[in-house]
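Table S2 (text version). Query chain:
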Amino acid sequence: MALDFDLAARMDASLAGYWGSYALAQGSHREEFPGASLFYTPIPLSLFNTVILTGQDVASIDAAFSSAAKCIAGQGRPVLWRLSPTAVSDEVTTRLEQYGLQQQGRDPAMLADLSELPSPVQIDGLKIQSSEGRSGRYDWAGLTCDAFELGPSVRKAMSECEATIPESEFASQPRYVGYLDGKPVAVSSLVMTAGLAGVYAVATLPDARNRGIGTAMTLHVMREGKMRGAKSAVLQATEMGKSVYERIGFSTVYEYELYLQTR
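Corresponding structure-token output:
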């Protein structure tokens, strides 16, 4: 299948919209190059310290690598490079390998048509609400880390970053909490970018899993995106979660190649 360059650019913008928001928080660093964006945060997890590469310009790759290396030297957190299909070439791969980057696999980029959404999942006692204000988003981040089973250092740093992202960002990036019988048990986030509804941070606490709550949180984001005018929903899935999303209408359109920079 021929690559749809317009769709790829819009999906890349969605990816940058979510991860890049954390690079607007206090203590973060953000740099833009032609065809490359560097986001570096205080959160000790490479997902939040990333280069999104959308072009094949060698000078931009060199500049992004150099800036990332300075961040790593100063603060020690590795940087995950995400390569859009528009950035993939033998020359780019060779350049990254010359710099010592290690291949980390691929993440499927998935797309769903919002014209006919599946029926909402009915779960007794489940209510989904927006997370409001700095304190609400601080708590949302903590719940997100608990649901993804991340450590206390990530929890503390993500919560502090979430609370200091500029308020204006959340007009297009609402965060959602799922309450089961009044207890917060699940999270998700919508990112509206370039006419797409981006689905991010879908997770459920371990003791509330296998009840369809994650599916309900995903469908809620999709419905909210459709109400805001999106025609399609997008997400980046792990291989483990891919089949879950396929059951509610997502299909893989391409993959992001992943590389890790450690120095």
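Notes on Table S2: The radius of gyration is 18 Å. The helical segments are 5-22, 58-75, 90-98, 133-147, 152-164, 213-227, 239-246.
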